[in-house]
């Protein structure tokens, strides 16, 4: 994607498998939203090839669009509708396309229950709290039972209970409905819990592609080993926690207690990747990009 003489995106290449959950991460201005909008068909790319469900998003028709679900960061043009009425109305648009692909839209009451809005089904959208409105945004995005779902900061404004319920819904969509999900989030803990694979975008290009564990190993990020012995507490950082623990038991055996191994979080790995890229260490980024294939 080029704006004037500036390449906002270049060489962005990845493939999403059916039923896979991908998290697209990156600092502000990295090009995440532009990438998503190109895939959704909302923005025309400057060059390259894009294929979503067998079609070019730049020319996808109504049947193709009915196979997609989109949850934007915010959507505020439905305030006077009541929750159940709005979802029932939107579902009617998908009915003819659902019959054509044997994937009918959600039953409205099942959908309301799935997103946790049963008690608020007869409320006007304008009367919902921020978290409840966000749940409604999610319901609108999945009402047609999409085959590919785009989620942009989906749990913004959710309390911990609502976030946990949403995570269960994402797993249900990917596991039971084989929905392919591409989400952007600044919540790295959420990405680690939800995503089968992590894509890191920086400087307009993908610098990492792999599972959270594979990326962590490719960056040789230290794990923290904690244990007790003879009433004393010890902490040690190691790039090979397994070998260190094996040696620890070989030396001290049953004297070791309260053993914990804390591997690097996705946040640790992500920060290391971005710092390496921004400092010009593109070899580290290249190693992480290949990490899933090793």
Quick description:
The chain has 294 residues and is of the alpha/beta class. Helix content is 39%, strand content 19%. It has helices at 32-40, 62-65, 83-100, 108-114, 130-142, 160-176, 188-194, 212-218, 241-252, 266-278, 282-289; strands at residues 2-3, 6-7, 21-25, 68-71, 148-152, 180-184, 197-202, 205-210, 223-229, 232-238, 256-262.
Q: Strand order of the main beta sheet, please?
A: 4-5-6-3-7-8
Provide the helix percentage.
25-40%
Query: What is the number of domains?
Result: 2
Rounded radius of gyration (Å): 22 Å
Topology as a string of helices (H) and strands (E): EEEHHEHHHEHEHEEHEEHEHH
Fraction of residues in β-strands: 15-25%
The average pLDDT is 88
CATH architecture group name of the largest domain: 3-Layer(aba) Sandwich
Number of strands: 11
Q: Kindly report how far apart the N and C termini lie.
A: 30 Å
Residue stretches low in confidence (pLDDT < 50, at least 5 long) are: none
Task: Determine the number of helices (DSSP H or I, runs of at least 4 residues).
Answer: 11
What structural category do the secondary elements indicate?
alpha/beta
CATH fold node name of the largest domain: Rossmann fold
CATH superfamily of the largest domain: P-loop containing nucleotide triphosphate hydrolases
Task: State the major sheet.
Answer: 6 strands, mixed
Shape summary: globular
Assembly type of the chains comes to single chain
Main location: membrane
GO molecular function: ATP binding; ATP hydrolysis activity
GO cellular component, one term: plasma membrane
Subcellular location: Cell membrane
């Amino acid at each position: 994607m080029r704006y004037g003489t500036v390449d906002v995106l270049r060489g962005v290449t990845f493939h999403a498998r059916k039923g896979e959950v991908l998290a697209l991460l990156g600092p502000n201005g990295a090009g995440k939203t532009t990438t998503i909008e190109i895939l959704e068909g909302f923005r025309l790319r400057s060059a390259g090839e894009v294929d979503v469900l067998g079609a070019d998003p730049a020319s996808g028709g109504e049947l193709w669009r009915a196979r997609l679900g989109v949850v934007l960061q915010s959507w505020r043009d439905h305030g006077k509708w009541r929750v159940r009425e709005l979802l029932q109305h939107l579902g009617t648009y998908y009915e003819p396309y659902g019959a054509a692909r044997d994937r009918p839209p959600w039953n409205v009451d099942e959908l309301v229950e799935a997103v946790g809005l049963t008690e608020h089904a007869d409320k006007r959208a304008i009367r919902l709290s921020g978290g409840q409105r966000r749940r409604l945004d999610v319901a609108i995005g999945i009402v047609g039972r999409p085959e590919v779902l785009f989620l942009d900061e989906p749990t913004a404004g959710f309390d911990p209970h609502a976030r946990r319920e949403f995570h269960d819904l994402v797993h249900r969509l990917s596991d039971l409905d084989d929905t392919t999900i591409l989400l952007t989030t600044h919540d790295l803990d959420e990405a680690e819990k939800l995503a089968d694979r992590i894509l890191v975008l920086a400087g307009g290009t993908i610098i990492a592609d792999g599972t959270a564990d594979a990326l962590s190993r490719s960056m040789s990020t230290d794990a923290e080993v904690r244990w007790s012995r003879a009433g004393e507490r010890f902490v040690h950082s190691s790039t090979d926690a397994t070998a260190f623990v094996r040696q620890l038991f070989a030396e001290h055996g049953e004297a070791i207690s309260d053993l914990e191994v804390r591997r690097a979080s996705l946040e640790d790995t992500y920060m290391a990747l971005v710092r390496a890229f921004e400092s010009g260490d593109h070899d580290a980024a290249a190693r992480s990009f290949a990490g899933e294939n090793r």
